Amino acid sequence: MNRLKSLLISWEALLVVLLLISIFIGSVASPYFLSGFNFYALTSNTMEIAIMALPMTLIIIAGEIDLSVGSMLGLSSVVLGLLWESGHPMWLAIAVALLVGLAGGYLNGVLVTKLALPSLVITIGTLALYRGLAFVVLGDQAVSDFPTSFTNLGFGSLPGTEIPWSLLIFAVLAVVFGIVLHISRWGRQIYAMGNNKEAARFSGINVSRVKLVLFMLSGLIAALAGVIFTARLSSARPDNAIGFELYVVTVVLLGGVNIFGGRGSLLGVVLAIFIVAIVQNVLGLKNISGDIQSLAIGLLLIMSVLGPNVARRIQVVIARRRLVAGSS
Amino acid sequence: MTTTSQDVERARQHEQVSQSRLYRLINRVRELGLLVVLLLIILFMGIQAPRFLSIDNFEQILLSIAILVIVAVGETLVVLTRNVDLSVGSMVGVTAFVTAYFFKQLPDVNLLLGILLGCGLGLALGIINGLIVSYGRVPAIVATLGTLYAYRGLVFVFAANTTTQVNASDVPSSYLALATTQIFGIPALILIAAAIAIIVGYYLHASPTGRQLYAIGSNPEAASIIGIRKDWLVFATFAASGLLCGLAGVLWGARFATVDATDATGLELQVIAAVVVGGVNIFGGSGTILGAVLGAVVLGTLQNALNILNISQFWLQAIYGAAILIAVILDAFITRWLQRTILSRRKKA
Predict the structure, then answer these.
(1) Does A226 map to a domain?
(2) Residue B314 is nearest to which of A115, A125, A136, comparing CB atoms?
(3) Per the count of CB atoms within 10 A, which of B55, B112, B142, B304 is most buried?
(4) What is the predicted pLDDT for the residue at B251?
């Protein structure tokens, strides 16, 4: 247990080092990197991904995955735009968009828990389904005439600072999720489920209910990210946030969460969010397009799992050599 | 206490004996079910729009799914071993763009050289996937989600340094002819896809290696214990998937003639839909090439029907998603139902 703890601590220490290195590289690469406005741009650009990473962390620790988050974001964004365009008040449009996310998450959760189907396939299916529905609802159109009071949520920052509102939302949510995962009884149950589902069930944890709630939470948060995304771009399009699942899964795994469940911490994920945000930002400052940026993110995703695996193998080889040398 | 543990042991043995029989039954039920669905669509469409029933239209349907079938054959191999390859769309995109650009730059080059280049490139990308999954011990879903975007990024890097788009007028007509040639009145594209499906399907069914793939998917640990070289075979299926994507990319460039960096984006969803609808178990160990081909045919027929009924193509992706979900849910129910009937029959006996 102690060794496990020290391993976790060292992964997070590694992330802090990586974060410092990326800040250093960023400040060398561009004179604009350390400006207040760039801090605003860097954070507001990533906050949708960041808040979706919070429930994803819990889901992956519980031994499942939700690949449909980007599509749920797109669908709720489209619903929001459509309701506003057809003359409904903004608060109602936002409320319905959040409900759509909740419903999407509920469908994911019911299929995974009630029918005992693998979340991987189910959420690939709903990834296509929800994105498809977004296209069905809005076709190739876009809604963009949102009121400034709403777009301020995406554009604006806390009065007198360069801190975007979305960063504040993320910070509050991160604290809540941190408490749930690391302090509450729920958090212990999530770790237990991820380590051994059967044992968790036999020790009286309602695995199905916890998982259902996690998937609903993921849908709700994805919809909230959809509202923020729509406000920030001032545009509701069916292809909003295509491929965001890559970024969300990448920050969670880079944050040290085990893809097979049972291990990881929210602190690591928060550190990883800022590392990925800086990588994206620096590439953007260097005029590298989003499509090529995703090459870097894809590699980062693979490296974040491959790196520790290779390191462990090398450790094993070295240990074996020592054993052989010692016995001869 | 001892009796119960013996009972459990006996029950487990029964379960394992019936497992292969169960899978075979499931395959038969699934393939028959797909045929019924297909007939229903054809019947419905025949009444709604008689021109749906023309030979021309059937050829159109088969033509539209030929490339999908080639990719789905490779995906089936991967899924059988309890893995998944999400990067297929990007691999097809890379090879389509690079091959088309190659022919644009060297219009007089031997056709075979370009085809080999495309296939070799696909194979190389597949080998990278295989190395990461089999020897790097990265779960397939993570590895290929990463390469899905990494390979797509490669096309954009390549396009940024060469040209944004290759047009039909830029490439030699001999390359475009790959997709339009007819042999005995049947488009070559359909024949190529059929040949690949038959060869791989037979190989999977009859060769020891083919059976070993099923064994790996049914129980990876047991497969290792009885001496199946699991890592090597899983690696090989990813390489094969890459190779087939390479060939599909070459044909993609020939068929669509105008190629840019976004080509074949999202193809992975169609491929996985075809494979899963075709009854290939996503947990590995069960499913056939015939099933995957039938799955592709059903999806292609649906798409064609939407076209003829003038329903917006925007419905397509939603239908793919719904098809994946329905297929997986049906599989779960059929498996449970068959398990129960086999068990109750055994009790009577």
Answers:
(1) yes
(2) A136
(3) B142
(4) 94
What is the percentage of chain B residues whose pLDDT exceeds 70? 93
Residue B221 lies in a domain: yes
Res B241 pLDDT > 70: yes
Instruction: Provide the percentage of residues in chain A whose pLDDT is more than 70.
Output: 97
Q: Has residue B289 been placed in a domain? A: no
User: B219-256 burial string, b = 16+ CB within 10 Å, else e?
Assistant: bbeebeeeebebeebbbbbbbbbbbbbbbbbbbbbbbb
Q: Which of B146, B157, B282 is closest, CB to CB, to A298?
A: B146
Report chain B residues whose CB lies below 8 A from the CB of A124: 269, 272, 324
Q: Identify whether B284 is part of a domain.
A: no
Count of domains forming chain A: 1
CA distance B283 to chain A (A): 9
In this structure, what CATH number is given to the domain that contains residue A176? Answer: 1.10.3470
Q: Dmax over Cα atoms in chain B, in whole Å? A: 79
For residue A233, give its domain range.
16-327
For B166-193, what is the mean pLDDT?
86
Residue A323: CB atoms within 10 Å: 10
Q: How far is residue A79 from each of residues A73, A123, B112, measured CA to CA in Å?
A: 10, 20, 50
Q: Is residue A4 part of a domain?
A: no
On chain B, the residues whose CB falls within 8 A of the CB of A249 are 142, 145
Look at residue B87 in the predicted model and tell me its pLDDT: 95
Asked if the Cβ–Cβ distance from B139 to A260 is below 8 Å, we say yes
Contact across the interface for B269 and A128, Cβ inside 8 Å = yes
- Tell me the per-residue pLDDT of A95-141, one tens digit each, with 9 for 90 and over: 999 999 999 999 999 999 988 888 988 999 999 999 999 999 888 78
Predicted TM-score (pTM) of this structure: 0.87
- Structural domain contains residue B93: yes
Residue B184 sits at φ, ψ, to 5 deg, of 50, 35
Q: Which residues of chain A have pLDDT under 50?
A: none
Check B156 against A295: CB less than 8 A apart.
yes
Question: Tokens in use for A114?
Answer: 């009630």
Residue-level pLDDT at B1: 41
Q: Which helix (H) or strand (E) holds B179?
A: helix B173-180
Residue whose tokens read 């949708």: A48
Q: State the complex-level ipTM.
A: 0.85
**Is pLDDT above 70 for B26?**
yes
- DSSP lists the bridge partners of residue A295 as none
Domain count, chain B: 1
Residue B119: φ, ψ to 5°: -65, -40
Q: Is the pLDDT of residue B2 over 50?
A: no
